[in-house]
Amino acid sequence: MEPPMKWMLPLAVSPRPARYGVAIGSAAISVVLVEFLLPSLGNQFPFLLLYPGVICAAWYGGFGPGLLATVLAALVADLFLFEPRFSFAIAGRPGQLAISLFLVVGGFISWLGEMILRANRRLETYARGIANQRDISEKRAAELDRLNESLRQSEVRYRSLAIATAQIVWTTNPEGEVAEDMPMWRTFTGKSEEELRGWGWVDSLHPEDRERTRAVWSVAVRARSVYETEYRIRKSDGEYRHFAVRGAPVLQADGSVREWVGTCTDITTRKRAEEALRRASAYNRRLLEASLDPLVTIGPDGKITDVNEATEAATGYPRAELIGKDFADYFTNPQAAREGYERVFREGFVRDYPLEIRHRDGRVTPVVYNASVYRDEADQVIGVFAAARDITAQKRAEAELRQMSHLIDLAHDAIFIRGRDGTIRSWNRGAEQMYGWSGEEALGYISHDLLGTRFPVSLADLEDRMARDGSWEGELIHSRRDGAQIVVASRQVLDREERGEPTVTLEINSDITERKRADDELRRLKGELEERVVMRTAQLEAANKELESFAYSVSHDLRAPLRAIDGFCQILMTEHAPGLDGDPRRYLQRVSENTRKMGRLIDELLQFSRLGRQAMTPQPVAMADLVRQCLEELQGEREGREVEVILGELPPCRADAALLEQVWLNLLANALKFTRCRAEARIEAGSFARDGETVYFVRDNGVGFDMAYADKLFDVFQRLHRQEDYEGTGVGLALVQRIIHRHGGRIWAEASPDRGAAFFFTLGGSNANA
Amino acid sequence: MPDHHSGHVLLVEDNPDDLELTLHAFGKSGLINTMQVVRDGAEALDYLFGKGEFIGRDVLDVPLLILLDLKLPKVSGIEVLRRIRGDPRIRTIPVVVLTSSREEQDITETYGLGVNSYIVKPVSFDEFVKIAAQVGLYWLLINQPPPPFQPRAGA
């Protein structure tokens, strides 16, 4: 407030130069007054004219200026009024006295002026104090008014605010119990004042929040600290809403808690927004992670800002390590990678940008990148979003396709693809060579027209078959470009799309013209051969017959003369030359012996030849019995001799019993024969198993033989001993071998001269069924 | 030793050596029966059926025993045997095959035709003599010959 204006105030506050200026001015005015008024007044009281100036200066300026004006006036008076004039020297006592008096009076006036001035100043100060005090009380009153007003407004505003916002204001007593009505809480929850009292308000919280809230509130109340939590309040309509709660103790001057006040701020919307944001974020993250493609975001500085798991897998580095690193560092060609994302920042996107990701372990994954920039709300580019597509499989597939294509071109067969309309879609080099039409010429033609196909069945039948079975195989006749006809073995397959709709026909044709020709030739030759075989068989049969009749002749006719020779020799010896003695008789005996020997030879030879022709009747044979039976038969050979026969294990077998008997008879007879010289002959028959088959053997302690001749042992008419020592025809073992061979078995011998011999034989697989 | 059955023996043999030796052997064995010799199959049949050279011979005067060689000119021994067994008048005559053949085929076939015995002539004459004696002994002394053929009344 402006203080009331006072008349003294300008003087009181006038500055020192102004005050001294007034003094000098007053003195000057006094001099003028003396100069002009004195002559008219007379020279009696010259100083009277000087006093107003002094008074004026003292009044205005106080003691200093008053004194200055006094001195100046005294000097003027000295110069102008006293003799000698215009000199500071004063002649005469009265003048000096007058000046001195004037100086004293002037000084007194100045002192008085000073006193007045000071009194004025004090007065002024006092008056200002009074005024100030009045101002202050006025201000206070206004302030109070204003406070009242603002309080009123605040209340109104507060009320409106409380209504407008979803804030709930609450108060409790120092113990944290609700003691007063909480209208807002009551309105919000729809509960009664009574229900909310004490700790009753907790029941309007969400059941899950109650326990925690009680605890937090209790702790705050005890600690008198700021209470801050969140809970859900059940609205009167049953809806739970989230509130952020803050409360503080209201302290009294003595530091004790007067009460607690607080607010509950509805943050449901914020919560929901947060939740939505969190969900959206999780959704985005999941979306990123769901991608099998390595995804990455790159900042403008080329540093990775985020990656998904597929990127971790592709690079071998964890996400935390990748973020913040140079994107380009993870490629075989960092320069190309850098250029890639730079282009995205420049042009906004790239499509199918080829790069190779280098895995931590050195493995390289070929990829193509599709990338675009992404922007913030202000449409400022903040990064690049890049998705890599692993094209390893694609590359492999491409390579395989390329290889398959080459392979198809390598084939001599004609391989081509026909569309549904029969037009040629693809035509390999084999087809070019086989038919003489180049790919360019053939493409687009209907294959059956171009090749003049002649079908073994009607085309309709073929197509029916194709539709039913999806494939067809058969021979076709095609015309080459040069008109020559060729026979092809054709294989056709209907290719179907995923839904099963036929798309194209794949056809492979092999030129079998030559083969057909060769087949025909072969067939002709085979026919000839068969004829020849029939002829030869007939010849063979004839020869066989001849052989049989020869054998018959041998058996019948060859023996007759022998018998005659022997017969007549005998008659000669016994009847006609009883006295014959010496050489003639011996010669006759020799003739007779030889005829008999020849008879045996013929018999055995016949037997041997018959063996080749005779049918075999394999049957189970009790080997041990058979051997015993043979020994029995050979009893005559043992007469008068010391022969030890040892029979070992002789498992049964499957063989022709009669033939097998011949084997044992021969082997045992041989053993008996070649042990004849032994005082104690020892013959062992037995068997052992070797390599899954049974080996039978006959071993003796006879004269044995030199293994050097073992290979001749089984030849017909081969003998290893002199006739005089051991009789025999040399057919026996040949016969044995032939029987064993006819059974599919083997026979061999082990011996050494004078150390005995052993014959071993097997019967092939035939003993397995015994 | 029982008495000899009366009657003759028919010997069918083409080989003169064998013939002589056989006769010799049978002679040595002490058989007293008459030996009627024919030299081939045809002659044997003529004899048996009273034909050709033997026309008028009483067919019912059958031999006690026929010694038959198999390998014969003109008609084989097998055929002769078949004809003998095919005629009711003479089919009961004991026939002993006396041959050099050991062929199974011959043995089987002759037995099939009802031969009474099959003897392979041994090369050794001594043995042959023994066999001849045994055959004679058995068939002419021991064996009971079949009764003579009786034509059925009214036949």
Outline of the structure:
The complex is a heterodimer of chains A (770) and B (155). Chain A has 770 residues and is of the alpha+beta class. Chain A is built from 23 helices and 21 strands.
Strand and helix layout:
The complex is a heterodimer of chains A (770) and B (155).
Chain A: H1 9-13, H2 16-41, H3 51-61, H4 63-80, H5 93-164, E1 168-172, H6 183-189, H7 193-196, H8 207-223, E2 227-234, E3 240-251, E4 257-266, H9 268-290, E5 295-298, E6 304-307, H10 309-315, H11 319-322, H12 334-347, E7 349-358, E8 364-375, E9 381-390, H13 392-410, E10 414-418, E11 424-427, H14 429-435, H15 439-442, H16 447-451, H17 459-469, E12 471-479, E13 485-496, E14 502-511, H18 513-576, H19 582-613, E15 619-621, H20 623-633, H21 635-638, E16 643-647, E17 653-655, H22 657-674, E18 681-690, E19 693-700, H23 732-742, E20 747-751, E21 757-761
Parallel strand pairs in A: 16-18
Antiparallel strand pairs in A: 1-4, 2-3, 3-4, 5-6, 5-9, 7-8, 8-9, 10-11, 10-14, 12-13, 13-14, 15-17, 18-19, 19-21, 20-21
Helix pairs in contact in A: 2-3, 2-4, 3-4, 3-5, 4-5, 18-19, 19-23, 20-22, 22-23
Chain B: E1 9-12, H1 16-28, E2 35-38, H2 41-49, E3 65-68, H3 77-86, E4 95-99, H4 104-112, E5 117-120, H5 125-142
Return the structural class of chain B: alpha/beta
Oligomer: heterodimer
Overall form of chain A: rod-shaped
Q: How many distinct domains of chain A? A: 6
Number of domains of chain B: 1
What is the string of helix and strand elements of chain B?
EHEHEHEHEH
Specify the biggest β-sheet of chain B: 5 strands, parallel
Helix content of chain A: 40-55%
- From the 3D structure, determine the CATH topology of chain B: Rossmann fold
Characterization of the model:
The complex is a heterodimer of chains A (770) and B (155). Chain A is of the alpha+beta class and 770 residues long. Chain A has 6 domains: 9-134, no CATH class; 165-272, PAS domain (Beta-Lactamase, 2-Layer Sandwich), CATH 3.30.450; 291-395, 2-Layer Sandwich (Beta-Lactamase), CATH 3.30.450.20; 411-511, Beta-Lactamase (2-Layer Sandwich), CATH 3.30.450; 512-614; 615-769, 2-Layer Sandwich (Heat Shock Protein 90). In chain A, 51% of the residues lie in helices and 20% in strands. Chain A contains 23 helices and 21 strands. Chain A has a 5-stranded antiparallel sheet. Chain A has a 5-stranded antiparallel sheet with strand order 11-10-14-13-12. Mean pLDDT of chain A is 83; it is low at 1-13 and 766-770. The longest helix of chain B has 18 residues, at 125-142. Chain B is of the alpha/beta class. The mean pLDDT of chain B is 86. The N and C termini of chain B lie far apart (40 Å). A 5-stranded parallel sheet of chain B has the order 2-1-3-4-5. The chains are: A alpha+beta (770), B alpha/beta (155).
